[in-house]
Amino acid sequence: MKNFLISALGLLVVIGCLCFFYFGAKFFWTTLSSINPSLAVGIIAAGSTIIVSVISVLITKLLEQKAAIKIQQREKKIPIYEELLAFLFTTWRIAIIHNELPTQKEMLDFIYVFTPKLIVWGSDEVMVAFSNLKQAKDQDDMAIAIGDLWIAIRKDLGHKNDGVSKATLLKTVISDVDHEQIKI
Fold first, then answer.
1. Residue among 177, 78, 71, 184 at smallest CA distance from 126
2. Reported pTM
3. First and final CA of the chain: distance in angstroms?
4. What are phi and psi of 34, to 5 degrees?
5. Cα dist from 78 to 100, 120, 154, whole Å
6. For residues 132 and 146, what is the distance between their CA atoms, to the nearest angstrom?
7. What is the radius of gyration, based on Cα positions, of the chain?
8. Of 131, 172, 138, nearest to 152 (Cα)?
9. How far, CA to CA in Å, does 171 sit from each of 56, 84, 97, 165?
10. Average pLDDT of the chain to the nearest whole number
11. What are 60-98's pLDDT values in tens digits?
């Protein structure tokens, strides 16, 4: 019953707006038709100028608001992505220098603290790449997943990634990236 009343009220509002627009346009047209043609041209020109100006201001404000929201989101995303990269690089460094990986508890602790932040602030592409990284089965899959993650993070932060591939990013930390072996 409640949904019916809301739908009926919405329909009445739409019909009312259409009637208002129709009768307003009819009155405006009738009035313009009955006055001096040169005065009508001036009224139409002035009205058009006002309408175009208002629409331009509204569109500009909308675009500015979207840009401001994007900037605010980027400011929240950067520390989260930096936290992820710091963890990956620290893990990588320890694995290379000491030939050991973090314990399962350390990995789970990081994932349980980090994942909620990523769910809130990460882009869809970053979420998919992070999920793929967690599902990596071997070192080759992990290298591909890390490359995908880095590309996704860069894209989310506004980089175009023109000429930057997974291989290019991986070569910044791995000197012997084999394109054929890891299928980049």
1. 78
2. 0.67
3. 58
4. -95, -10
5. 29, 13, 10
6. 9
7. 29
8. 131
9. 47, 19, 18, 10
10. 87
11. 999 999 999 989 999 999 999 999 999 988 888 888 888
